[in-house]
Amino acid sequence: MPEKSIREMSEFEKMRYSIATKTFRATVMEAVILGIVAFAIGLSLYTYSLVRQYIHDSFNLCRNAAAVLNKVSDVRIYSNQVMDTFRNQTTNERNQCGTDEYRMRFAEFIKKPEYKYIRSIMKDFYDSSDVDDIYLAMYDKKTCTMVYLCDPNREDTLYPGEWESVTEKGMEKFLSWDGRGTLYDIDNTEKYGWLCTSGIPIYGEDGRIAAFLLSDISLANVGKAMRSFTIQYLVAMCLITFLVGYFMRRHFKKALVEPINLIADAAVVYVKDKKEGVTNTDHFSRLNIKTGDEIENLSLIMADMERDLAIYEENLKKITVEKERINTELSLATRIQGDMLPNQFPAFQDRKEFDIYASMDPAREVGGDFYDFFLIDDDHLCMIMADVSGKGIPAALFMMASKIILANNAMAGNSPGEVLEKTNNAICSNNREEMFVTVWIGIVDLNTGKLTAANAGHEYPVIKDHDGKFTVYKDKHGFVIGGMAGMKYKEYEIQMEPGSKIFLYTDGVPEATDSNGNMFGVERMLEALNEDPEHDAADLMFNVRRKVDEFVQNAEQFDDLTMLCMEYKGKNR
After folding, report:
1. Is residue 277 in a domain?
2. Which is higher by pLDDT, 284 or 139?
3. Distance (Å, whole) CA 396 – CA 383
């Protein structure tokens, strides 16, 4: 198909690429393929039948001629006389076959009345048939030769005593024939080419084979008949193929092409009217195509589609307005969620004891991850990192409720374990949707640097000593918040020195996935943190995010990605 629309084509191009023309070509191609297959099968059957007919006629000719000879002549005596003369020759004398000297040894047999009588009878059969040769011969097993006794062929007569070499395998059929079926052998001879020899043995009074009455048919005759059959078949096939293709083209043009063109023209007018704002909805229904097949069904479907599109466009306008409203509300929800988290950095500018930085990038407009940090009093900083099950608006609502409950329990002066316990009981008391949240909470005594923390099924924190590198701190996990009421949570302590840092994160960081399904992993996260562990909190987080982006590249973000980093600087800073 050319790279242009139907409206840009010339009439010749339209005709060339039309379904009618393609149908004609396809019909011709299919007819040719079918014709070739039929030709191959027909030619095989014709050749097989022809060869079988030749063999049958040749064999019957030999059988009839042998029956006549057995009645009117004693072939056995004549054969024995010729074969005795042949066998009494030396090897050198036999090798003179075809010379005048050789023929003189057998000249007496030509003069005998038996020879003339036998030759006369065989000549009558030869002249009344289509075989290439009929002759009387005898096989000499010792020399493995076929010795000719009588040959009525005038053009290439073989005189008595002349011989030709044969193979013992080729003679096996004739020597072991039991009198049933047709006796023949097909062989590619050096002198005559492909030759079919049929025959019948003539038995003497002692029951032994005295001679063979044989006839030859050259298979070149079969080749001539095959060529004649091929020419006639090809002429007939070409004529029939053209006629079938022509009438198929006319039929398809009327039954298929013209109705399709009507539908195409109606589609062009439909598009033109849409661009111009015309609200007409009867472009296809007024075509009135009555083909009684899929084309008529197509026109009815197009008419229904036109009416449905008109209804759809009206509904789409309403849906678009509704979608814009939802998008506006989602944008507002995103801003509200962002405002719920501490987002002013640097935070606590008047406090020199610590430096803290955090970020949250939701996978959707709103997310389920959250972080929080706040001063419980002048000497205690609370940090929270949490991950709500699920994503989107439900997770965001659950996150906001969890954040408020956690903050209230922490501000009430509870220890980290108590905060998690009270929050879990509060959420479990009314959690019909069975959502849950993993939480890590830690409270730092800014005077001493002692960090007291508890973990409710969240990721391990990453700790850096004041003079070391970041390493994963494998704390003891409690059960997730919202999973089961009455759970207890163990606390643990970490002594932070000036220069110590803690890095908190959700599973969206190590589970960030590239286009091949490979995860970023904790090891890569540690490598990013330890490229320069002395960086401040913001730079450390930026470096981790940069490494994550380089790893995933263009792959879609499937989970919220939230991080928090705090450096303890000491009371005297």
Report:
1. no
2. 139
3. 19
